[in-house]
């Protein structure tokens, strides 16, 4: 009896180690960089939308680290510019909704009204702040129904800092940066030599060694997709890089921000035939692919099949776990939604706010998956216990 009691701490220790160990990947920067696990290309890409922003404030170092830890294939970011021409990771052209800028008395006179995509918008515009000033701010969670405990704790990061997060990961992690609001940025931010926002964007990628067409040796070493809602930006940079590009498509009632084309124009067969010369794929809002009425997903459109017929990938956005974003068809179950979009619609990548959920779904539903963790643990306990029988 005493022998068994003496053995108990070992069993407890084994259980503690197993219950606290990370089953997927070590933390970024802690792995063996000499033999990094390559990017998976056999199933739809898990694209961490602004990082794991369902858990942590978006576009922050911490949100991207969490996404990598949870199994993201790509970490996605929006690129804007500071007043002094430094490219930063931030979604909105104004700072109001996701930072504490309103708490800074020294910035009270910075509020402006600019025209953004044909609409007069008032707020604290990112283009009116230097990088140093932006770094003094802290980021907040966008949605009030998500965890607020990290508000005011994390900084805005630069494009270069974002890239190093991916490059420092213990496995190959791709990046998915967006050329965000280029019309506004080029209007209010000026670089020497007549360079444009798009030029600085591509220069940054080249500086860190990103090059090569889709699935080339160079691309697989440092994977990247370049995305934008502005088709002219994608066409402009096509002369500077052969890195794969994705044309983002907004809601049916929102025209393109630079060419003022309608949704119906840019999803026509004629336009798809044109744009496929410059882009690898399209990134539509998912409710345009599968229309929604009274919170029920209806009959899918034929856009995915028409894109695939032209060898264009389709990476819809955005998948979220919360009930308010899950249509009734999915019984408030994000895994049912993933199953529908991957196995019925056949998309090639998914932008998700909850990287871990998508990764778990794909792991659990993999054809060769066998969850034998529990049986292995019991077997090890039995082996340790056998000497005491």
Order of helices and strands: HEHEEEEHHEHHHEHEHHEHEEHEHEHH
- The DSSP helix count reads 15
- Quick check: average pLDDT? 90
Residues in β-strands, percent: 5-15%
Helix coverage percent of residues? 25-40%
Instruction: Tell me the total number of β-strands.
Output: 13
Sheet of most strands: 5 strands, mixed
Inertia-based shape: globular
Summarize this structure as a short list of keywords or feature phrases.
glycerophosphodiester phosphodiesterase activity, 389 residues, signal, alpha/beta, 4-stranded parallel beta sheet, EC 3.1.4.46, 5-stranded mixed beta sheet, single chain, PLC-like_Pdiesterase_TIM-brl, 33% helix, glycerol metabolism
What does this structure look like?
The chain has 389 residues and is of the alpha/beta class. The chain is 33% helix and 14% strand. It contains 15 helices and 13 strands. The strands form four sheets. Strands 1, 2, 3, 6 and 13 form a five-stranded mixed sheet that branches. A four-stranded parallel sheet has the order 7-8-9-12. Strand 7 (226-228), helix 8 and strand 8 form a beta-alpha-beta unit. Helix 1 (2-20) runs antiparallel to helix 15 (373-385). The longest helix is centred in the first third of the chain and has 19 residues, at 2-20. The N and C termini lie close together (10 Å). Residues 1-33 have low confidence and may be disordered. This is glycerophosphodiester phosphodiesterase. Belongs to the glycerophosphoryl diester phosphodiesterase family. Residues 44-362 form the GP-PDE domain. InterPro entries: GP_PDE_dom, PLC-like_Pdiesterase_TIM-brl.
């Amino acid at each position: 009896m005493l022998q068994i009691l003496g053995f108990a701490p070992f069993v407890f220790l084994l259980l503690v180690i197993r219950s606290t160990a990370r089953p997927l990947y070590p933390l970024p920067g802690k792995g063996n960089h000499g033999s990094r696990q390559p990017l998976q290309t056999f199933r739809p890409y898990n694209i961490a939308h602004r990082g794991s922003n369902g858990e942590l404030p978006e576009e922050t170092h911490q949100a991207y680290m969490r996404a990598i830890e949870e199994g993201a294939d790509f970490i996605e970011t929006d690129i804007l510019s500071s007043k002094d021409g430094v490219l930063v990771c931030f979604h909105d052209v104004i700072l109001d909704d996701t930072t504490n800028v309103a708490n800074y008395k020294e910035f009270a006179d910075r509020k402006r009204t600019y025209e953004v995509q044909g609409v007069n918008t008032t707020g604290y515009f990112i283009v009116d702040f230097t990088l140093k000033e932006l770094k003094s701010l802290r980021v907040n969670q966008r949605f009030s129904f998500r965890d607020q405990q990290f508000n005011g704790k994390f900084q805005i990061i630069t494009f270069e800092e974002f890239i190093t997060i991916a490059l420092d990961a213990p496995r190959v992690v791709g990046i998915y940066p967006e050329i965000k609001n280029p019309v506004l940025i080029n209007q209010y931010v000026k670089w020497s030599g007549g360079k444009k926002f798009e030029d600085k964007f591509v220069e940054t990628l080249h500086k860190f060694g990103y090059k090569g067409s889709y699935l080339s040796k160079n691309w697989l070493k440092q994977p990247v997709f370049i995305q934008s809602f502005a088709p002219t930006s994608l066409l402009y940079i096509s002369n500077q890089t052969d890195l794969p590009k994705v044309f983002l498509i907004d809601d049916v009632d929102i025209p393109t921000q630079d060419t003022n084309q309608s949704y119906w124009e840019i999803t026509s067969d004629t336009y798809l035939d044109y744009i496929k010369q410059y882009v690898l794929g399209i990134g539509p809002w998912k409710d345009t692919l599968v229309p929604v009425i009274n919170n029920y997903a209806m009959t899918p459109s034929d856009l995915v099949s028409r894109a695939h017929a032209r060898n264009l990938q389709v990476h819809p956005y955005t998948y979220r776990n919360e009930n308010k974003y899950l249509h009734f068809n999915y019984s408030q179950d994000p895994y049912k939604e993933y199953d529908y979009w991957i196995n019925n619609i056949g998309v090639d990548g998914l932008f998700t706010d909850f990287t871990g959920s998508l990764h778990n779904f794909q792991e659990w539903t993999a054809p060769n998956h066998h969850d034998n963790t529990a049986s292995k643990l019991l077997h090890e306990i039995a082996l340790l216990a056998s000497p005491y029988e």
